[in-house]
Amino acid sequence: MPCVIITGFEPFGGESINPSWQAVNKLGDDLIAKHRVIALELPCEFDRSLDVLYKAIEQHHPVLVLCVGQAGGRSEISIERIAINIDDARIADNANTQPIDKPVIEDAPAAYFTNFPIKRMLVDLQKSHIPAAISNSAGTYVCNHVMYGLLHYIAEYEPQLKGGFIHIPYLPSQAVHHHGAPSMSEDTVINALKVLITAALSTKKDVKVAAGTTH
């Protein structure tokens, strides 16, 4: 049976949970669009995260990889369009590593665009009444590191593999500790992940709708 890999991160930055893994873990061994879902927790570490991801890809041979990360302060599902070849960590990772102005991969392209049908994914989320937007920055922390590393792997070794990244808000249980911070329920995030995977698997050509930003 064909499979998809969906990843979340362990907690970081002083949080006791990470909403990405909380949601992703619930989908492990589910069937979505006749594809088995493999849930994978990634370490929030620059030096180990891609090793764990690459080993899982080589073991399971998925047709799609969707990586998910926490973006505290965002209010909607953020479908990431692009990853850049830079690590510039505002805080240290969970291994106390803090790269500054270092490439994710030496002598590799400056950036990669996801090959996900991001506009179709956006439209399908909106039709499901789930707040969502296209994001043009995955940051410069471990999330961008993983997204860039995934897309580089695809470009170098498996161009038929679909891959990309989304950011999700805090869970309500986290937001209560961050005054004014928006949140999204775990059930809504899980439903969003199902919509996103289904759209990515079923769409051969993306739709053209305006979803850019002015700044």
UniProtKB/TrEMBL annotation:
GO BP of this protein: proteolysis
GO CC terms in record: cytosol
Matching InterPro entries: Peptidase_C15, Peptidase_C15-like, Peptidase_C15-like_sf, PGP-I_bact-type, PGPEP1_Cys_AS, PGPEP1_Glu_AS
EC number from the UniProt entry: 3.4.19.3
Pfam families: Peptidase_C15
Keywords: Cytoplasm, Hydrolase, Protease, Thiol protease
The keyword Hydrolase appears for this protein: yes
Catalytic reactions on record: Release of an N-terminal pyroglutamyl group from a polypeptide, the second amino acid generally not being Pro
Subcellular location: Cytoplasm
Root EC class: hydrolase
CDD domains: Peptidase_C15
UniProt xrefs under NCBIfam families: PRK13197.1, pyro_pdase
General function of this protein: Removes 5-oxoproline from various penultimate amino acid residues except L-proline.
Subunit-level organization: Homotetramer.
HAMAP family named among the record's database cross-references: Pyrrolid_peptidase
Family note: Belongs to the peptidase C15 family.
Name used for this protein in its record: Pyrrolidone-carboxylate peptidase
